[in-house]
Design a protein that fits this description.
About 30% of the residues lie in helices and about 20% in strands. The chain is α/β, with parallel strands linked by helices and about 350 residues long. Helix 1 packs antiparallel against helix 3 and helix 3 packs across helix 9. The longest helix is centred in the last third of the chain and has 18 residues.
Length: about 350
């Protein structure tokens, strides 16, 4: 079967499965092994690897392929190392074995969210370097921790660091979602995420979930939360575990040269794009908040959305085609001519 015949496997798939076996799963992600994995990749690819410790124990490797024109802003390829917990009893295969079945489906936590993208970045860069390409713009790859629990010890801190500002990022790519149709989804903004923690002192009782809803007026919703606490009586308070108040939108028209380049590649490859606002939150929000246009894109079409789900999986042909797509995207994005503010 395919899982027992590694000699016939594409080396990019083998590398992908190797990364999937690193247990960067909450609540205790093995970040040390993941960082060492990316250091090794940098060495093999001839890239520099800067390790930025944003807070004790949280290290972000930054791999860099220098461009030929250092006066231009750079391209950032971001992905996160951490994955959400699993309930092994609901999986057909060990979620950290990276089992590949006879049809070519790879089962593992992180196949879609988002270890596939991390390896696609690396393999696209590898291919371009092997072919002898050089581009005007520098390409940086960041592999961040903590995204699944808010990014507070990851990208939120990184964008404030002088090491990040020295990267001079002009445009970024980050994660998207699979699309079960022939189309590819691309995300240009995100919802304003609010996580609220209520505290009620007294005898324990039944705790029910709030029904998901979108408040049109955020201020009015906050007053409603306060009124609920007041109505419940003394000893009931709430605090925001996460409260995002800086929504930004990356323009998706040809006036934005980054979108124009991205869209042109997709048209040339006959890829149908479906632009959307991301239904939850990713690290893109921290990038956009500091003025960096970003698109969320995981090139997975004809694929059910299985992030955070049992039996998360990805077909190897979809994964490999993603490398082809990123190879074309990087060639064009890293060659975008100087913008007015770069002259």
């Amino acid at each position: 079967m395919a899982n027992k015949d590694p000699e016939s496997e594409h080396p990019s798939v083998t590398l992908f499965r190797q990364y999937l076996r690193i247990r960067t799963v909450h609540p205790n992600p093995d970040y040390g092994t993941a960082v060492a994995f990316f250091e090794e990749r940098a060495h093999q690819l001839g890239l520099s690897c800067q390790k930025v410790e944003v807070t004790p124990g949280y290290v972000i490797p930054v791999l860099t392929w220098p461009g030929t024109n250092p006066t231009l802003s750079s391209i950032l390829l971001n992905s996160h190392m951490d994955v959400v917990p699993v309930f092994k009893e609901h999986w057909s295969h060990d979620p950290f074995e990276a089992f590949k079945d006879s049809e070519g489906y790879i089962y593992a936590r992180g196949t879609q969210d988002m270890k596939s993208v991390s390896i696609q970045y690396l393999e696209a860069v590898r291919r371009l370097k092997v072919e002898g390409h050089r581009f005007p713009r520098t390409i940086h790859m960041t592999f961040v921790p903590d995204e699944e629990i808010g990014g507070h010890k990851g990208m939120e801190l990184l964008v404030q660091r002088p090491e990040f500002q020295a990267l001079r990022v002009g445009f970024a790519l980050d994660e998207g979602l699979a699309n079960p149709t022939d189309a590819f989804t691309v995300f240009y903004s995100e919802r304003s995420l609010w996580w609220v923690r209520f505290t009620s002192s007294g005898r324990p009782g039944h705790g029910s979930r709030f029904i998901e809803d979108t408040a049109a007026e955020k201020l009015a919703f906050e007053k409603q939360l306060q009124s609920w606490c007041q109505a419940a009586g003394e000893g009931v308070t709430f605090e925001f575990a996460q409260r995002w108040m800086k929504p930004r939108v990356t323009p998706i028209d040809d006036a934005n040269p980054w979108w124009a380049a991205f869209n042109r590649v997709c048209k040339d490859m006959n890829l149908t794009l479906e632009p959307e606002i991301f239904p939850a939150a990713t690290d893109s929000r921290y990038l956009r908040a500091v003025g960096i246009p970003a698109l969320g894109f995981s090139p997975m079409n004809r694929t059910p959305v299985l992030l955070h789900d049992h039996d998360e999986r990805l077909h190897e042909t979809v994964f490999l085609r993603g490398i082809d797509i990123y190879t074309r995207l990087l060639s064009v994005l890293a060659s975008v001519p100087a913008l007015p503010n770069e002259n």
